[in-house]
Design goal:
heterodimer; A: mainly beta; 6-stranded mixed beta sheet; 5-stranded antiparallel beta sheet; B: 7-stranded mixed beta sheet; 4-stranded antiparallel beta sheet; 0% helix; globular
Chain lengths: 111, 115
C-alpha cells in the first residue's frame, strides 16, 4: 500500500510556537500534497511538492521531501489558534493521479 | 468564483435502499475525485475521472458502488442496496488536472447515514 502515515497523531502547542508534522509513505511517488481540514469542514489544499523537489514554502508553511527516506514534513511557523485543524498528506504514484491520504495529524494550538 | 458543491448535504436512508450523491465541480476542471471519510480517519479514495471516463476506479469497495460523469462535468455516485457500513461522509474534489499537478479542491461533503 502506498498510504501515508502522519506522525504524530496528535500535537498540542502554544500559540506562537512552531508545529512540525511528518508523513511517511511506502512506495515511489509522483508528487505529495498536504491538506488541512477544520473540524466538520472540507479539506483545503496547502502545498504540492513534486518528487524532484526537496523544499517548498508558502507563507508560514514549509514542506520538505526526502524521497530516499520516503518521508515529508510540514512545518508551520508562528502558529495561531486558527491553525487548529487536522493535517493530511496525500501521495500519488508514478504514472497515476490517484491520491492516497494518510491518517492525519490533529493539531491543537492553544491561545 | 463558485467552489465544488455537493448535494444533498445530509442523507439518511434505510438499509437496502438506493442512493445517489451529486457533485458539481469547479467549471473547467477536468479531473474529479470521490472519497469517503469516516470519523477520525483520512479520506479513502474511491474513484477518479479524467473528463468523462473513469481513470481509476480501484477504490470502489464492491459492485454496489458506481459513479458516472457523462458530460465531463457533474458526477453522480450511486450506491445500491445500502448497508450500515456505508455510513460515512462522501467527499468530492475537482482538479484543473495536469497543469496544476492535480491539486484538489474539495466540496463540503455529503453525510450518508444508513439506518
Amino acid at each position: 500500500s502506498q498510504q501515508g502515515e502522519e506522525d504524530p497523531q496528535a500535537l498540542s502547542i502554544q500559540e506562537g510556537e512552531n508545529a512540525t508534522m511528518n508523513c511517511s509513505y511506502k512506495t515511489s511517488i509522483n508528487n505529495l500534497q498536504w491538506y488541512r481540514q477544520n473540524s466538520g469542514r472540507g479539506l483545503v489544499h496547502l502545498i504540492l511538492i513534486r518528487s524532484n523537489e526537496r523544499e517548498k514554502h508558502s507563507g508560514r508553511l514549509r514542506v520538505t521531501l526526502d524521497t530516499s527516506k520516503k518521508s515529508s514534513s510540514l512545518l508551520i511557523t508562528a502558529s495561531r489558534a486558527a491553525d487548529t485543524a487536522s493535517y493530511f498528506c496525500a501521495t500519488s504514484g508514478p504514472g497515476t493521479y490517484k491520491y492516497i491520504f494518510g491518517t492525519g495529524t490533529r493539531l491543537k494550538v492553544l491561545a | 468564483g463558485a467552489g465544488v458543491s455537493q448535494t444533498p448535504s445530509n442523507k439518511v436512508t434505510e438499509k437496502g435502499k438506493y442512493v445517489e450523491l451529486r457533485c458539481d465541480p469547479i467549471s473547467g476542471h477536468t479531473a474529479l475525485y470521490w472519497y469517503r471519510q469516516s470519523l477520525g480517519q483520512g479520506p479513502e479514495f474511491l474513484i477518479y475521472f479524467q473528463g468523462t471516463g473513469a481513470a481509476d476506479d480501484s477504490g470502489l469497495p464492491n459492485d454496489r458502488f458506481f459513479a458516472v460523469r457523462p458530460e465531463g462535468s457533474v458526477s453522480t455516485l450511486k450506491i445500491q442496496r445500502t448497508e450500515r457500513g456505508d455510513s460515512a461522509v462522501y467527499l468530492c474534489a475537482s482538479s484543473p488536472g495536469r497543469t496544476s499537478g492535480y491539486e484538489q479542491y474539495f466540496g463540503p461533503g455529503t453525510r450518508l447515514t444508513v439506518t
